[in-house]
Every structure is written in structure tokens, then in C-alpha cells.
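To close the chapter, one final illustration. This time we ask the reader to focus less on the individual chains and more on the assembly as a whole: which components sit near each other, and how the overall shape emerges from the parts.
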Amino acid sequence: MNASNKNVINVTPLKASEYFNGIISGNRVSLSRAITLIESSLEKHQAMARELVELCLPYSGNSIRIGITGAPGAGKSTFIDSFGSYLTSHNKKVAVLAIDPSSSKAKGSILGDKTRMDRLAIDPSAFIRPSPSSGSLGGVAKTTRETIILCEAAGFDFIIVETVGVGQSEIAVHSMVDFFLLIMIAGAGDELQGIKRGIMEMADAIAINKADGDNLTKAKAARAEFSHALHLFPPSESGWVPRVETCSALSDMGIDNIWKIIEEHHLAAVTKGYFDFNREQQSIFWMYDTITENLKSSFFNQQKIKDALPLFERKIKDKTISSYAAAVELLELFKNRK
Amino acid sequence: MNASNKNVINVTPLKASEYFNGIISGNRVSLSRAITLIESSLEKHQAMARELVELCLPYSGNSIRIGITGAPGAGKSTFIDSFGSYLTSHNKKVAVLAIDPSSSKAKGSILGDKTRMDRLAIDPSAFIRPSPSSGSLGGVAKTTRETIILCEAAGFDFIIVETVGVGQSEIAVHSMVDFFLLIMIAGAGDELQGIKRGIMEMADAIAINKADGDNLTKAKAARAEFSHALHLFPPSESGWVPRVETCSALSDMGIDNIWKIIEEHHLAAVTKGYFDFNREQQSIFWMYDTITENLKSSFFNQQKIKDALPLFERKIKDKTISSYAAAVELLELFKNRK
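The assembled structure is written out below.
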């Protein structure tokens, strides 16, 4: 490289097999560049990404995938820093993927959080990768799922997928992990402030964080309350009854108890055969989901449809057309496309 | 009609405008026959049904739509009989639509239940109509939504939509009503036995039924527990905090309290502008949902896709193809259809 090139980011195009060899031998640079390839929307990159994912697929699956969510301020990143370090101190390799398909404001918050993963950031057994916040939810979900496969092929034992708890992404993440953890803090009855409805019901466990100092009593009370409330829910498909535990990520207190819950859940799921069953169901779900999202985008990205939609929405609001008749007319418009 | 015709069911085809005139003047026979038209899958019936719904649309909307669900045995039909009679005794007209898109076994159960609505069945201010259990969920949802429009045009003040609480239909019903009520019974910690996850979180209120005799103490305890648990949920979009009340439909006890909750919810929603906003959002949602369901059925009903799906599902389970690559191949197959 000569001096005049010093500001050019030099990315020599590799073949899929070259990326694969790098990943399988645990090369972090190869892994990072492969994830960038997966994130690319260029058609030639997409084709190569598919080839690469197929190569990695037989080497994937040997991890525990943990989804972690919680409202802003609950201390998710501090928790992941503490929990991840606990795992690496037990000779485990940990990959952290941070998803945030919502606003650029929230993106800033996750990137800000990332710098707070002080220990993991310099831990040779850890790998942290934020997802780009641009693109559709379906696109982010696809990227994250394929990144999981790559990280597993690279030998990571734990894949932690972090989301911000305020959008639709939690449902997507819930459909790609083995264990879903909700991080909360104890407060004056507004523990779930900022958390969307439906998220608590997906949780396999709730960690009540910042259970230290003056907060300890409140955190213990919240633990009892939520523990009781979760028992009122109908049982989950796996038969697992969600658990609640307090912790203080800042002082590494109680992190081992959270791990014990995850370990117990994992053993139960493997023993019952639910673990493999759930992974298969998730993979099949994502095939159907990808097809549906693709059909929808072919439809709604057609210019005639884009032009007509506001008019039909207006007519529906004015009650001059029924929802069904509007759908039929739009479908006709789509079929008669030139 | 001469003697030789006495066993022939004589259904003269009417025009849409004739159905409409009958409905608008409150003729029950016209309403019933119009609903049968809406339920028909024949293309000529569908076209006429659309015309009829358009005619009724400007006369629709003036009702309170209440979704009622609960596990088998919770006493839904007894509750509806009591609650509906309470409303008709206050000079209100009540239509009851029972949806059950699940098994024919469950269908039997709803039809069985219907005969238990003793009072409403002979009440001139009430109209009871079970939905056919055949057909897709999307089809049943469409039928029910259009039936609501017809019933409103016929002057009903309350539309009660009943589901069995074990399937996907509750989510559909939740998207077409103003108020969603869950009927439960107090038991030994298994109050929600038979209720799918996610249903409790949709409820605007929970009625703990059969709160009489030996059950009263248990019911009151359950009321306190669920009331407390519901406060732990994140607030709903409307700002409404779900309520819990006990009642005994069999002895008409506490039914007025349930009504007071619904009335309070209605007043709050109207005052805040949430009522109209929610109805508009629901109508627009159903346009998008109808389009998506139609796109999916065009795809998945194609013979080549039907033939190929089991193979791709097998490959995914064997990890010889990724979810995304499988979706891409199936989409290619679909596009190249002859």
C-alpha cells in the first residue's frame, strides 16, 4: 500500500470459502468482515453471503442463545458486561449482538451502552457487534440470525442478543433464542415503564438489576411481586415457569444466580427434547416469515400501490369503503400491473 | 306455494338493495339471510356481499363491540345470557356472534352453549348467530367483521363476539372490538388452565365467574391476586388499566358491576378520542391483513409450492439449507410458475 492510499479502506474481495476458513479457525477479522458482507444489501454480496451461511450451517448450533431486553436505564449493558465476564471467566467464549432497528436516537443509546461494556470490550474471549439500525425489521432479523450462525461456526459458546425493549424487535429476537431474559429495575410501581406490552410474557426470567444500597429492599419486594404475578400466567409451551431474581451488575452480585437459572432451563429443555424441537420450529418459522415479508414488500413497494394506499386509507376512515373491498381493489390493481 | 313444493327450501335470490332495505328496517330474516350471503364462498355471492356491506357501511359504527373469551367451563354462555338480558332489560338491542374456527369438537361445544342462552334465545331484543367453524381464520375474521357492520346497520346497540379462548381467534377478535373481556373461574391456582398465553394481556377486564356458594372466598382472593398482577403490566395504548370483578352469571349477581366497568371504559375512550382512533386503526389494520392473507394464500396454494414445502422443511431440520436460502429458492420457484 502506498502513501496515496492511506485513507482508502482496503477491503480485498474474498471468496466465500476464504471467509469460511477464517471463521472456522476463529479469526476475528474474518468474522467481522463476513458479518459486514451479510449486512450488505448488494445482490452480489447477498449471493456470497448465502453461500457462506450454507458453509457455516453444519458447524452451527452448538451455543446457548440468550436474548436480553429491558427499558433504557435498566442497566442492560452493565448487566451484559458483568454476565459475559462471568461466562468468560469460566472459559466460555461469548458473542454479543446488539440490535436496534428503531430510531437513530435509540441507536445512539446502544452505541453509548457498548462503550460501557468495559471488561468485555478488552476480553479476548468476547466479541461485541452492534447491528446497523437502518433497514427493515425483517432485514435486521435476517442479519442477526445469520450472524448467530457465523458466530457459532467461529466457536462461540454463548450468543447474547441485546434489544432495547421498546419496539417490535423483541418478538423477532424471542423467535431466534433459547432463553429470553428481561432486565428491570425496582421503582415506585413503574418497573415496566418504557417496556411494551407482551414482552413480560415472553420472558423466561426477569433479572431485577441495581439491587444494591437503598434499592435492595425495593428490589426484593419487586422480586416477590413479579414472581407471584408470573405464576398467574398460563404455562409456556416448554412447561417452564418463568423465574425472577435480583442482581447488581455494577458490583457483580447475583450474576451467578441468573446463570444458574439459565443453566437449569437449558438442562430441562435438553432433557425434554424441547431444545432441539424449538430450534427446528424457529428455523422453519423464519423460512415462512422470510417468504411472507418478501411477498409483502413486492406488493407494497409497487409504485401504483404506494400511490393508491393513502386514498384507500382515507376512504376507510370516511367509511366510504369497507376494509375488505379496499383490499380487493388494491389486489386487483396489483394483479393488473404493467 | 303448492303442495309439491313443501319440502323445498325456498330461497329466492334477492338483490343487495333488497337485503339492505330489510336490514335497515330491522327485519331479522333479512339479516340472517344476508349473513349467510356473507358466509358464502361463491364468487357471485361474494360480489353481492361486498355491495351490501358498502350499502350498510354508512349506517354502521353506532354500537359498543365487546369481545368475550374464556376457557371451556368458565361459563361464557351463561355469562352472555345474563349480561345480554341485563342490557335488553335496559332497552338495548344485543347481537351475539359466536366464533369458533378451531375443531368441529369445539364447534359442538359452542353450539351446545348456544342452547344454554335460554333467555336471550327467546328475547325479541336479542339476536344470536354462531359462525361456521369451517374455513380459515382470515375467512372467519372477515365474515365476523362484516356481520358486525350488518348488525349495526340493523340497529343493534351492543355486539358481543364470543370466542373459546384456546386458539388464534382471540387476537383477531381483539382487533375488531372496543372492549375485551376475559371470563375466568377461581380454582386451585389453575384459573387460566386452557387459556393461551397472551390472552390475559389483551383483556380490558377479567370477570371471575361462579363467585357464589363455596366458591365466593376463592373468587374474591383470585380477584385481589389478578387485580394486583394486572397493575404490574405496562399500561395499554389507551391508558386504561385493566380491571377485575367477581360475578355469578347463574344468579345474575355482579353483572351490573361488569357493565359499569365497560361503561366507564367507553366514556373514557370516547372522551379521550381513543374510541374513534382505535376503530379507524382497526379498519385500516384489516385492509392490510386481508391483503397479506391473500398474498400468502396465492403463494402457499400453488401446487409447485405445496409439493416443495415438505422437502425444504426437511432440509432445514437437517441443516442442509438455511431458512433464508430455502425462502429464496421457494420464491424463485413461485416467480417461475407457468
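Chain B touches chain A through 61 residues (CB under 8 Å). The radius of gyration of chain B is 22 Å. With these observations in hand, you are ready for the problems at the end of the chapter.
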